[in-house]
Amino acid sequence: MPLLVMKFGGTSVADLDRIANAAEKVKREVDRGYNVIVIVSAMAGKTNELVNWVEQTSHLYDAREYDAVVSSGENVTAGLMALRLQEMGIPARSWQGWQVPINTTSAHGAARFVSIPRDNIDRKFEEGMKVAVVAGFQGVSPEGRITTLGRGGSDTTAVAFAAAFGAERCDIYTDVDGVYTTDPRICSKARKLDKIAFEEMLELASLGAKVLQTRSVELAMRYKVRLRVLSSFEDTDENSGTLVCDEEEIMESKAVSGIAYSRDEAKITLVTVEDKPGIAAAIFGPLAEAGVNVDMIVQNISEKNYEGHSGAVTDMTFSCPINQVERAKKALQDARERGEIAYDDLVVDTEVAKVSVVGIGMRSQSGVAARMFKALADENINIKVIATSEIKVSVLIDRKYMELAVQALHDAFELDKTA
Amino acid sequence: MPLLVMKFGGTSVADLDRIANAAEKVKREVDRGYNVIVIVSAMAGKTNELVNWVEQTSHLYDAREYDAVVSSGENVTAGLMALRLQEMGIPARSWQGWQVPINTTSAHGAARFVSIPRDNIDRKFEEGMKVAVVAGFQGVSPEGRITTLGRGGSDTTAVAFAAAFGAERCDIYTDVDGVYTTDPRICSKARKLDKIAFEEMLELASLGAKVLQTRSVELAMRYKVRLRVLSSFEDTDENSGTLVCDEEEIMESKAVSGIAYSRDEAKITLVTVEDKPGIAAAIFGPLAEAGVNVDMIVQNISEKNYEGHSGAVTDMTFSCPINQVERAKKALQDARERGEIAYDDLVVDTEVAKVSVVGIGMRSQSGVAARMFKALADENINIKVIATSEIKVSVLIDRKYMELAVQALHDAFELDKTA
């Protein structure tokens, strides 16, 4: 019998009415002939309540106890969803992580899947169960303790089950109706995409389009799980939402599929750094140790040769989240005091934002960067840093121009029109 | 190393401050050299919230899912308590029912213990853990589903652990400071007892002194677990509260230890019943099937021999909770219609209450009943039904005299004075 995985996030199961609404969506798929594995999050707000209790109880808390407490929210939703389905006449039962079992590593609070044996759930399907409701976000360690995958981990649970059970598709029900060419709050012409490739989704997700957790998309890409993002709060059918899939399923791609942005960026420049082998490692090693998420890196070869600098010198520029600037400064100053690096000045610009154009089509179509730069130049937007990858071009610009840039690029790449 | 079991009920762990307060009491015992098993209830109100969700979701709910949902409240408290103890420097960890494992029957919602293997917890004690915090009220079935013991089951969990681990004592922390000679709200002279025998506590508990769940006292009596009831909200030491123990530990007993009452009683009389063998079974069989909790039964041999009654006749009187009267009437009327019993009239008196004097001392001291009847007669209180057992005498009286009767009996047996 064909199998679907359906995942409902916290806002989709926020109260009993919404659980009933989600159950209706499950019933529709059962009526179509599917066996269904439903992955549920905690009711909206419950996880935060539990996390607050833990944090108020203990300052440096034992992550094993954190997981034991916080995982209870999903258990409640799983039981209620199973009850609701039963009330509608559908054979269903709930599964907590240890009952499946969802075997994970012992990295409490950030556990990773080890295995999801199918036997227990398959046996129940064979006995006539139509829906297995699984508590998301949790698993069990080799020591028999409850683990959690970290916030947002229910998306990853859903993809892992879809992979383990060979599901036809993994439908992620959420509070948006799909993936857009860009953020509709910033650009009114933003258009919902019918399909998007895993690689594009990864770039859009990690760049701030918070529809799907990055890890879930990576897992889906690795196991070729067809993911669909769609709304819990609208009538949906088999064509609703956005399908995130292998690029082979996407017949024809534009050069650019979407425009991502990240508002809270900072740019840090180390002025007059000695340009010698190992200097990048000397700079970014301490930053990594300090937990700074360095994103773009640009090294400007400089011909300046000031007094006191015997060899060639350079300026080194990188970007990081704005709330990590102090940490980054301290790490670099400490490294300078230890004599590991030398620089004349450290210049911080906290008034920048990142805008990226993303598309697998740019692999085969040239001129994307040039078209991007021209669109920004036409609006008199100055580009501070450029970084490119195979399927994206990112720029740092003044934050005040961010919305204008997104709109201009959306127009320039004609994203309001279907391919 | 000596071991204590300490149990904290819902009001004792109602919020983080109270959990911290309970943790202080645990620390005191650890400092005295004990290993401790702490049994916790859900934070007050949480279980009701979960039960309401289940009942709103499903009318005839699947008890297995009910248990999966409702048990989550205790899991949260167990984790928070373990965290709080760790924060105080005490090696502690939480245990959910399936982790111990607490093996129970599959009678979901009313499961009974099958076994509590010590291995897992003992191993952790050997490794240096000082406190095992166990979620009360739950277990795991042979099928691997979560079970619950029914409301109030955390007391029973505590006693079962005390028995399984050979604990020196099982301390039940609650919102009262011990067991009293009678209800202090009714009789201002009520005095806290230092010790009470299991049998007495059973009579007091089942008669309405709701300090301990009956089943937990039965279990404690069977395994000779010394139970102590004491307050979470007061400073307590090794002499606080009331010890519920084997009667051999009680050096000297008064004839009467306490006075119990039950306000919501009803008296039902079947008038002119044929007095023949099997008549009691014919009456009380249908009542039992209808789930009526019949308490006192009195059969008045009557010499009346009315027209239409060939043999001897009798009146049969029994008492039951007032909210079961309609059920009882229907069961009896149905039995009459089926021709299984015959009676002239069914008279219901819903204005009665039960008052009982309880004491293991009455086994060896005579005259208790006479002294009781005289005290009631002195207050002009009419006795409607009398029932006696080895360690108690109960009477049904008009409800309006109940408080007066309790006070009069408390004085008559000098319960305000220590033995």
Automatic annotation (TrEMBL), chains A, B:
<feature type="binding site">
    <location>
        <position position="185"/>
    </location>
    <ligand>
        <name>ATP</name>
    </ligand>
</feature>
<dbReference type="InterPro" id="IPR045865">
    <property type="entry name" value="ACT-like_dom_sf"/>
</dbReference>
<comment type="pathway">
    <text>Amino-acid biosynthesis; L-lysine biosynthesis via DAP pathway; (S)-tetrahydrodipicolinate from L-aspartate: step 1/4.</text>
</comment>
<dbReference type="InterPro" id="IPR001341">
    <property type="entry name" value="Asp_kinase"/>
</dbReference>
<dbReference type="Pfam" id="PF01842">
    <property type="entry name" value="ACT"/>
</dbReference>
<feature type="binding site">
    <location>
        <begin position="7"/>
        <end position="10"/>
    </location>
    <ligand>
        <name>ATP</name>
    </ligand>
</feature>
<feature type="binding site">
    <location>
        <begin position="174"/>
        <end position="175"/>
    </location>
    <ligand>
        <name>ATP</name>
    </ligand>
</feature>
<keyword id="KW-0457">Lysine biosynthesis</keyword>
<dbReference type="GO" id="GO:0009090">
    <property type="term" value="P:homoserine biosynthetic process"/>
</dbReference>
<feature type="domain" description="ACT">
    <location>
        <begin position="357"/>
        <end position="419"/>
    </location>
</feature>
<dbReference type="GO" id="GO:0004072">
    <property type="term" value="F:aspartate kinase activity"/>
</dbReference>
<keyword id="KW-0418">Kinase</keyword>
<dbReference type="InterPro" id="IPR002912">
    <property type="entry name" value="ACT_dom"/>
</dbReference>
<dbReference type="Pfam" id="PF22468">
    <property type="entry name" value="ACT_9"/>
</dbReference>
<dbReference type="InterPro" id="IPR001048">
    <property type="entry name" value="Asp/Glu/Uridylate_kinase"/>
</dbReference>
<protein>
    <recommendedName>
        <fullName>Aspartokinase</fullName>
        <ecNumber>2.7.2.4</ecNumber>
    </recommendedName>
</protein>
<keyword id="KW-0067">ATP-binding</keyword>
<feature type="binding site">
    <location>
        <position position="74"/>
    </location>
    <ligand>
        <name>substrate</name>
    </ligand>
</feature>
<dbReference type="InterPro" id="IPR041740">
    <property type="entry name" value="AKii-LysC-BS"/>
</dbReference>
<comment type="similarity">
    <text>Belongs to the aspartokinase family.</text>
</comment>
<dbReference type="Pfam" id="PF00696">
    <property type="entry name" value="AA_kinase"/>
</dbReference>
<dbReference type="InterPro" id="IPR005260">
    <property type="entry name" value="Asp_kin_monofn"/>
</dbReference>
<dbReference type="GO" id="GO:0009088">
    <property type="term" value="P:threonine biosynthetic process"/>
</dbReference>
<dbReference type="GO" id="GO:0005524">
    <property type="term" value="F:ATP binding"/>
</dbReference>
<comment type="pathway">
    <text>Amino-acid biosynthesis; L-threonine biosynthesis; L-threonine from L-aspartate: step 1/5.</text>
</comment>
<dbReference type="GO" id="GO:0005829">
    <property type="term" value="C:cytosol"/>
</dbReference>
<dbReference type="InterPro" id="IPR036393">
    <property type="entry name" value="AceGlu_kinase-like_sf"/>
</dbReference>
<feature type="domain" description="ACT">
    <location>
        <begin position="268"/>
        <end position="355"/>
    </location>
</feature>
<feature type="binding site">
    <location>
        <begin position="210"/>
        <end position="211"/>
    </location>
    <ligand>
        <name>ATP</name>
    </ligand>
</feature>
<keyword id="KW-0547">Nucleotide-binding</keyword>
<feature type="binding site">
    <location>
        <position position="180"/>
    </location>
    <ligand>
        <name>ATP</name>
    </ligand>
</feature>
<dbReference type="InterPro" id="IPR054352">
    <property type="entry name" value="ACT_Aspartokinase"/>
</dbReference>
<keyword id="KW-0808">Transferase</keyword>
<feature type="binding site">
    <location>
        <position position="47"/>
    </location>
    <ligand>
        <name>substrate</name>
    </ligand>
</feature>
<dbReference type="InterPro" id="IPR018042">
    <property type="entry name" value="Aspartate_kinase_CS"/>
</dbReference>
<keyword id="KW-0028">Amino-acid biosynthesis</keyword>
<dbReference type="GO" id="GO:0009089">
    <property type="term" value="P:lysine biosynthetic process via diaminopimelate"/>
</dbReference>
